[in-house]
Amino acid sequence: MENKSLDLWSSYKELNQFVETCISRPINGVAISLSKTLAKYKHNFLRVMKNAPKNGRSRQIVESKANGNAATLPQEIVDEAVTLSNMYNLDEQVALDLLCIAQQKCADYPGIARGPVAILLYYDAHFALAATLKMLVQAHQGLRWESNCLADVQKVVSKFVNELVTDGLFEAIFAALSSMNLTREITLLQQNRGLGGAYHHHMVTTLYTGITKTLAEIVLLYSAQCGLPAQPLLALVNHLKGTQPELDAQGGVDDVSLALLMAALYSIDVSIVQEKDDIENIHTFLPILQEDNLIGRVHSELVNPQVTWACPGPSLRM
């Protein structure tokens, strides 16, 4: 499967469909293709919610398409591409590609202009990447559930996900969650005339909150299935320190905060030992039992008197 570096939306959507097919359908020989494809996108998974950044060369190429007698695009779409690039620190050619796809898909979004459609495609692309990663974690070998995928596919998936974790996946997720704020995002869209009517506002909100929820669920699923190694676990504790949960009308904690809190609890839960016969195999999946004094390090972080928690109540102090 080709990694179309300039086609953000199509490449992430196709990756999602490809991974789903590999995991859900027993196709012999697909593991090799899956391994190669995942390797191509490893950098993208580790840079969750980050884009190929804008650069001068790409801007020159895009702007040249509306200049001179050989102009191939109207100035309006080039200006929109530059605006989109500035909004999301996005490579100008990638931004232009999003707008061109949006132009083709405007019929699917009646009453919404090309620019706001491109915004939806941008968020949908990142949601697709997060959803793909969630599928991979769900197919990971572990303690609490079994995947229906082929054994060689599960081996490829488990190895790849573990490599991502070692290379800082969860730290990247926590950084993304810390930087994401729906109110700030809506303001950005309003300032750049990227927000359509009520329906467009609803779709943006749904996609954006879907991304944050999916990222948190990735941490929860991995923690439940495999436990969290020391570095990701301590990073999670540090993230929770700075988290102020949002409460609904009934006083319930928001989905993201709840998922991360449960991930922390699963990471120190060893009750599964009492439920399984293969004790030695269980130890290989529980870092809390493998890594020296990990529980002591976590406890020290939790009770450190020099650290002020954003939410000082018992709900985030475990």
UniProtKB/TrEMBL annotation:
Matches recorded under InterPro entries: Nup186/Nup192/Nup205
Organism domain of life: Eukaryota
Keywords annotated in UniProt: Nucleus, Transport
Any GO BP: nuclear pore organization
Record has Transport as a keyword: yes
MF terms in GO: structural constituent of nuclear pore
Keyword Nucleus: yes
Subcellular localization: Nucleus
Main location per the UniProt record: nucleus
Gene Ontology CC annotation, any one: nuclear pore inner ring
Sequence similarity: Belongs to the NUP186/NUP192/NUP205 family.
Protein name per UniProt: Nuclear pore complex protein Nup205
Taxon lineage: Eukaryota, Metazoa, Ecdysozoa, Arthropoda, Hexapoda
